[in-house]
Amino acid sequence: MLKTFKKGGVHPPDNKISRNAAIETFPIPEIAYIYLNQHLGAPAKAVVQKGDKVKVGDLIAEASSFMSANIHSSVSGTVEKVDEWIDASGYKVPTVIIKVEGDEWNESIDRSPELVSEIKLDKQQIVAKMKEMGIVGLGGAAFPTHVKYAIPEGKTAEYLIINGVECEPYLTSDYRLMMEHSDEIIVGIQIQMKALGTNQAFLGIENNKPEAIELLTEKASHVEGITVVPLKMKYPQGAEKQLIKAITGREVPSGRLPIDVGCVVDNVGTSYATYYAVQKNQPLFERIVTVTGYPVRKPSNFLVRTGTPISKMLEAVNPDYDNCGKVISGGPMMGKALVSLDVAVTKGTSGVLMMTKGESQRHEEQNCIRCGKCLDACPMGLEPYLIASYSKLQNWDKVEEAHVMDCIECGSCQFTCPSFRPLVDYIRVGKRTVGQIIRSRNIKK
Amino acid sequence: MSLLNVSGSPHVHGRESVSRIMLDVCLALLPAILVSLLCFGWGALKVLLLSVASCMFFEWCIEKFLMKRESTLGDLSAVVTGILLGLNVPSSLPWYCIVIGSLIAIGVAKMAFGGLGNNIFNPALVGRAFLLISFPVQMTLWPKPLVTRGSLFFNGINSADVDALTGPTFLGAIKQGGVEAVSNFSIMDHFMGTVGGSIGEISALALLVGGIFLLIRKVITWHVPVAFLGSAFVFAGILYLVNPAKFIAPHYHLVVGGMMLGAIFMATDMVTSPMTAAGKLVFGAGCGLLTILIRDFGSYPEGVSFAILIMNAFVPLINRGFKPHRFGVVKEVKNAKA
Q1: Is any Cβ of chain A less than 8 angstroms from the Cβ of B316?
Q2: Is the pLDDT of residue A182 over 60?
Q3: Which residues 365-404 of chain A have a CB within 8 Å of chain B?
Q4: What ranges make up the beta strands (E) of A136-199?
């Protein structure tokens, strides 16, 4: 009997059409658009100016507060300007725009292909290295890793949980990474375990990736403390709290963090990036991105430098532009629909998904028939229909009472709604507004 | 490339839709409809067709001329209401009763509240209750079924017989003649459907088949039917043990009258039943209890419709009282203690 989380969840068709496409190194773009807010928290502060020469891996912006992360150049060339550029949210954000000249790397980066498995740094040094190298969570939210690894007083990290679930349909970047770079991932996990001072790590992989389960179970058998946990496929198993529940049976209390139940959750991509940061001194400036969808004639997995425009990647996969109605950064359940194809790849871009004209149309909204399917689908045990209708009425007190802040915006409710109601749209508005109300209330106190 | 669509996530949708759910309900009612056609012949067909047609017509009229909004006939909910109303009346019901019943069901019980999803009471049951109160004679005139057990599938349909013969239903006979009247009826006949009664309620077997289909299609869950039948059985059993001379044995209650139709198709209506599993159990148990109360102590021989309508009124309250269990709540309480 495979493990999974109990409450809620849905089963969208997984459509992993790019699963067998080996990772290809994507050509370096002519111009790189490197955002300064590629992470959760405050945007980084630029340390370069127009006209500066930079090499691959040079620091171009540094963390501006506790909750922030360093940003490094992904290319070598001349800084054209420090300006603004449109990002996946549709807004213009501070960006360093670099005109690419050649591919000259910072000398401190170890570019040799040998696997370095001996971990020389100690606990504090590893966390400092993570911070220096700009490591953030690569699962999507881009939470600064050094902040996560700063375990508060009185708390201990018993378990490190590595997320190889990739429950979003279509996306295969984590799968390809596990298949092609399992050795680096295993060393990366050992580094993370050392940084946390734990001797137990679990690597959760869903059973739609049997090859990855087999390969990593074999690799993990040679080292101590890492257990691969096959999980029964169910969305949203990759959500932090659901994954902890599935693997350890522990339930993160409402409004609390994984560390409150002794867990730290990281994506496999983060383990991989940590390996490069700590063992090879390589900052985070490239990642695996899946480019997929039915209009794409050649679904692919690319190793891409951050700052590469998405339009460049689409050109490479020869899509049927006439039959494309929507381009999404991320997966179909939680990804953001792009306003422009000029948007560039960030540390958190896991995939670019093209949808056909037919797929990209929403059905017309009908009356709620009180079927309760959204209640059954909600992994957080909320009442999505109720929150959405309170939010529509702008009754924020009621929205808060209905525990909107617990919502993880996984989209299961809207996926299952037979009346095609845009539940998550309303819930998101409610969550943002209630969040602001709570913050201003706390300031007044 | 043309303009890009931009919308919030999720960008994909499951296969569920309202019209698919309603179509499933129609399909699940097919066995019961088939039995009714075999038993009551053209009379049943006429009632069903007229009730579906008039429900659809009234919904269309009200949306077009009164509400001035786009027609929602496509969601098939009016068809379901029409079929259920037709199945809940005798096959000899005059045409004008059916039209009035449809108008009350669609106009008063459904559209006046804002259409599908906003109604508090089950529209078909409101229509039936209205007819029962307004036309008590026509509504309790039960044509005898054309076929008898054993020859169910071999007898032809002969409409001449239908209007000629009428007989009391099991529950009616009990109400008038006391417990001794039980011996005149066979429980197997009620199971197969070769008895008098409303068009759709006569065959418990056909209704069960439909119920299993709905369970497989996940249109309904087991909670309401099981709680409904279970509580009716338990409560009727207690009464039977207390006084077997006055009350009939509990297993009769489950197969006779509108029990199966009510428990499987009427009480499970999504709009007018609670959302959580616990809420559904409470709702179903209430329906079962009230049904037996009305059957054994009320002035009407049958109580399923009224029981469901009464419990419908409690649904908003039940939804308030029985919330889903939130993720991450148990631990919080434990931590607070520690």
Answers
A1: no
A2: yes
A3: 366-373, 375, 378-383, 403
A4: 159-163
Cβ-in-10-Å burial (0-12, 13-18, 19+) of B129 comes to: buried
Residue B43 has a pLDDT of: 85
Which residues numbered 90-129 in B keep a CB inside 8 Å of some CB on A? 114-118
| Closest C-alpha to A239, from A1, A3, A423, A5 | A5
pLDDT block averages, 10 residues each, chain B of length 338:
83 92 96 88 90 96 92 93 94 93 96 93 95 89 63 42 54 73 71 74 90 94 96 95 88 87 94 95 97 90 92 95 88 45
- Name the minimum distance, in Å, from the CA of A131 to any CA of chain B: 31
Residues of A in contact with B6 (CB under 8 A): 90, 326, 337-339
Buried b (16+ CB within 10 A) or exposed e, A39-77: bbbbbbebebeeebebbbbbbbbbbbeeebbbbbbbbbb
Q: Which of A254, A321, A334 sits opposite B326 (nearest CB)?
A: A254
Domain architecture of chain A: domains with CATH: 1-17+111-304+314-361 (3.40.50.11540), 23-100 (2.40.50), 373-444 (no CATH)
Query: What is d(CA B157, CA B150) in angstroms, rounded to the nearest whole number?
Result: 15
The rounded distance, in Å, linking the Cα atoms of B287 and B265 is 13
Q: What is the predicted pLDDT for the residue at B248?
A: 87
Strand partners of residue A61: A46, A71
CA pair distance A230, A233, nearest whole angstrom: 9
Query: Which residues in chain B touch residue A339, judged by CB atoms under 8 angstroms apart?
Result: 4, 6
B238 at interface of A, judged by CB pairs closer than 8 A? no
Check residue B208 and give its pLDDT. 94
Cα(B84)–Cα(B78) distance, rounded to whole angstroms?
10
pLDDT at residue A321 greater than cutoff 70: yes
Q: What is the pTM of this model?
A: 0.90
What value does the mean pLDDT take over residues A119-131?
93
Q: Does A337 touch chain B (CB under 8 A)?
A: yes
Determine whether the interchain pair B11/A361 forms a contact, defined as Cβ–Cβ distance below 8 Å: no
ipTM above 0.90, yes or no: no
